[in-house]
Amino acid sequence: MKTGIRTDLIQSQKLQMTQQLRQSIEMLQLNTLELYQRIETEVMENPMLEMIELPEAPKTKLEPKETSEEKKDLGWENSFNNNQSEEYQPSGQGSPDSGDRLRSFLEGAVYQEKNFRDLLEEQAHVEFSKEQDLGLAMVLITALNEKGFFDRDPAEIAQAAGFQDSDQRERILRAIQEFDPIGLATSGVLDSLEVQARILYPGEKLLPDLLRYFYTSKDEWDSAKVAALWNLSEDQVGELFHKLSSLSPFPAAQYGSEGIRYILPDLFIYSMDGEIIVELNDQWLPKVSINREYQNLLRDKSGDLKKEDKNYLSQKLTAAQWLIRGVEQRRRTLLAVTKAIVEKQREFFLRGPSALKPLSLQDVAEMVSLHKSSVSRTVNGKYVETSWGVFELKSFFARSLLSESGEETATLQVKQWIQELVKAETKSLSDQEIAEKLRQKGLELARRTVAKYREELGIPTSSKRRQQK
């Protein structure tokens, strides 16, 4: 047998998680109020960014027609490579009373009490279309402690609830760990940090080793020691430290056990002359651009600028351009996804919640040529104001139930039927009686499913309703 060393050239494809792409993903997850705070913080910290005052423009409720550029390319990598815009202007640019609008929005904002379990459960309903998968997800989420970690082995928890398939358990568990906030449903701090490192920095193979070393040794960070142990340069150590610092040992802490979150609509959707209009609620966002004075200073070839100052301004210029492009890409993606939802749920906006149709993330992802996970990030935490009230974007992704005739019915529509039955009842209907009445509509539902929907609607049991009359 002949042995030896040889070199082979192997061609492969992989997605490189660049800093631009990562920032784009972060931008996509922000709601409009969070984006407002992010832009203000960046402007204060980056001298290359400046607020711009735009001339007064006529206010209009009509959204500009979608351009061919918006329609043909929502890819983040292509956007960052090709988009050379150096300023971001919200869709309602030039509105002179943006400060008053912000105050009025804040004063009229509704709020919702949510904890991390609520957020995980909402994402689970969007992610898992199969009843078995959703059921297991709910069991695992319910078993988390107040820090978002498991006190027991999730395998034992799943098996005790009747879920014996280990492949299914690992698949569901991995999906929950990737929900926002990333790193929950883990065994503890180290496991959570490793999950975050794997998802946020997939190309950094050293991060897990560094995490385990410093977590187990309890040593303080020593850049010289890290450089020596792993044979790294000073720049590489600094970059690794920055990435480690961005991870959260307790991802659930930002929500607390009963956090209050104020809600401002990110979009307006309304009907005008038979046409459904989608409008971004971003008129009051700060308008930002590149500071021309510093940019000209950077371009100056006279050599008056010190090397370290030039490097500093170059880094800040790059960061400013990433911010502006990321915000613009978020706007385009949010508009495209919302318009796709409106196209599929047109009857809802014309007739109300009873007309909601079954819709999946994959349906919309195919319409806008994005990955399903990108659509999920886009709709998560975003709210729209409609003629029928304020709704979270993800609520338009309704799971379907099959009637006896084979027709698909959205769960939200079923809940509305239950509400109507309870509202019209002369005597308090039991869950079984409600199920019978739904069966008369051609919809076969178990009593326990009716009870679940009734509880989600906040409707008391029949006995409590009798006492209230």
Account of the protein in words:
The structure is a single chain. This protein has 469 residues and is of the alpha+beta class. The chain has 3 domains: 19-52 and 265-392, no CATH class; 116-254, no CATH class; 400-468, Homeodomain-like (Arc Repressor Mutant, subunit A, Orthogonal Bundle), CATH 1.10.10.60. It has helices at 19-29, 32-45, 68-72, 76-82, 98-107, 116-127, 131-142, 154-160, 166-177, 189-200, 206-217, 223-230, 234-245, 292-299, 307-344, 346-351, 361-368, 372-379, 411-424, 431-440, 447-456, 462-468, and strands at residues 49-51, 87-88, 110-114, 259-263, 267-272, 275-280, 288-290, 383-386, 389-392, 400-402, 408-410. The strands form 4 sheets. Strands 6-5-8-9 form a 4-stranded mixed β-sheet. Strands 1-7-2 form a 3-stranded antiparallel β-sheet. A two-stranded antiparallel ribbon has the order 3-4. Helix 6 packs antiparallel against helix 7. It starts with 18 loop residues before the first helix and ends with a helix.
